[in-house]
Write a structure and sequence with these properties.
The chain has 470 residues and is of the alpha/beta class. Helix content is 31%, strand content 17%. The strands form five sheets. The protein has a five-stranded parallel sheet, with helices on both faces. Helix 6 runs parallel beside helix 8. The longest helix is centred in the N-terminal third of the chain and has 17 residues. It starts with 6 loop residues before the first helix and ends in a 10-residue tail after the last helix.
């Protein structure tokens, strides 16, 4: 490709092995694996007598099925037979094929999209894949990161390449300063409310602007994590000094002269002046409010001080029907304030919001307060290292003193594939990424929000912002 190029174009071009019939054979730098989407892929390799092409370019984690208590017992302590089989298969397969694995109970383990960055495996300019839709998280580092299916997992293991069609370019520019108690999660939900769940379909989103540059790496990961919910193939943020400071000294990053060479190379990873974007979106950061989902997809959101929409006011028949179904499932009334809706559960965790910065925000809000008596609230750190750091900083003690259940790392209630599930009819404030019907448990009702709002809601016993606690 000639002329000014976007960041996406640069990474794509640098990893193109061959092109054929509108498709590109793309080289993959990092392949992240977990226990749910890898067993069939490894079985396919074994059946064909194939080896793993580049074992050093892979990292395996157990996260979806793991219980968030008793992890020291390892897979043998998992009650569910299918979950235990998948966890044991990952251990056996990675041992057989020579892939690094942080198994259940390893202090370096946890959610794949938390651990990859934490270990310094996710780096600028890389192509990164995983059999999980929220692989877009790693785009926060200026990497092209996207989810793949099980058959593609096998293909990448065998060849270290994948066939893909080039996406269109979209840029979301966010300028200005976010208000107090407004975080990256609120910005992502605001964008979802603006463009919808298919608003970025067929595109890779590059996030730019002063408000994006002001985000920490944790905030950038949260924003890129939710790109997939907007229909995007991936999300990207150009690397800068914030990126380099986060990566410096991590186990898998370069050191010494190699670090200097790497940062010089990474600095060039930015869209060129005059690069063409197929779609441009501009957001004023001052317009972003603390956001809460009211429906059953992540674009059905409203500001915490707003009201639940009335489907009758929606001109589009499809939108009206979707809203009516969502309100019936969520048991909510049109035009009612979203704040004040009574909660049964609060879940703080997931690959979207389970990093140390998220937990610091929660601790600052709940310190000296107590979870409402009728609410069961749990905090699930994203990795063993996040858990250790939170305990060393006194965050865990603050959360326990306030009445939160302090758990061990894993996907937990976000995906409902383990013991952490909602019961039918329970209403939950969650920092996770999806609020689909039955996502967190059959008949469970999920309200997506930031860690700040989830913390305040746990104390209030109903949906609330920190400003509403008094």
């Amino acid at each position: 490709m000639t002329g000014p190029r976007t960041l996406y174009d640069k990474i794509w071009d640098a990893h193109t092995v061959a092109e054929d019939d509108g498709e590109t054979l793309l080289y993959i730098d990092l392949h992240l694996l977990h226990e749910v989407t890898s067993p069939q892929a490894f079985a396919g390799l074994a059946a064909a007598g194939r080896s793993v092409r580049r074992p050093a370019r892979a990292l395996a984690l157990s996260d979806h099925n793991v219980p968030t208590a008793g992890q020291a017992s390892g897979p043998a302590g998992v009650a569910d037979t299918e979950a235990r089989a998948q966890l044991e298969a990952l251990v056996a397969n990675t041992r057989r094929f020579g892939i690094e694995n942080f198994p259940m109970g390893d202090p370096r383990g946890g959610i794949v999209h938390v651990v990859g960055p934490e270990q310094g495996r996710s780096q600028p300019g890389m192509t990164i894949v995983c059999g999980d839709s929220h692989t877009s998280t790693h785009g926060a580092f200026g990497a092209l990161a996207f989810g793949i299916g099980t058959s593609e997992v096998e293909h990448v293991l065998a060849t270290q390449v994948i066939r893909q069609r080039r996406s269109r370019n979209m840029r979301a520019t966010v300028d200005g300063v976010l208000a107090p108690h407004v975080h990256a999660k609120d910005l992502a939900l605001h964008l979802l409310g603006t463009i919808g769940v298919d608003g970025a379909s067929g595109h890779v989103i590059e996030y730019a602007g002063t408000a994006i540059r002001a985000l920490s790496m944790e905030g950038r990961m949260t924003l890129c994590n939710l790109s997939i919910e907007m229909g995007a193939r991936a999300g990207l943020i150009a690397p800068d000094a914030v990126t380099f400071a986060y990566l410096d000294g991590r186990p898998a990053t370069p050191h010494g002269d190699a670090w200097d060479a790497a940062t010089a190379r990474w600095t060039a990873l930015a869209s060129d002046a005059g690069a063409k974007f197929d779609r441009e979106l501009r957001i004023d950061a001052r317009a972003v409010r603390p956001m809460v989902s009211w429906g059953t997809n992540p674009s059905q959101v409203v500001a915490v001080d707003g009201s639940i929409p009335d489907p009758a006011s929606m001109g589009d028949a499809d939108a009206r029907g979707a809203a009516e179904r969502a309100l019936a499932y969520m048991d909510l009334a049109p035009r009612a304030p979203i704040a004040g809706q009574r909660l049964d559960r609060v879940f703080i965790g997931s690959c979207t919001n389970s990093r140390i910065e998220d937990l610091r925000v929660v601790a600052d809000i709940v310190r000296g307060r107590n979870v409402a008596p009728h609410v069961r609230a749990m905090v699930v750190p994203g990795s063993g290292l996040v858990k250790r750091q939170a305990e060393e900083e006194g965050i865990a003690a603050t959360l326990r003193d306030a009445g939160f259940d302090w758990r061990e790392p894993g996907c937990s209630m976000c995906v409902g594939m383990n013991a952490d599930r909602l019961q039918p009819g329970e209403r939950c404030a969650a920092t996770s990424n999806r609020n689909f019907e039955n996502r967190q448990g059959r008949g469970g009702r999920t309200h997506l929000m930031s860690p700040a709002l989830a913390a305040a809601s746990a104390i209030a016993g109903r949906i609330a912002s920190p400003d509403m606690l008094g």
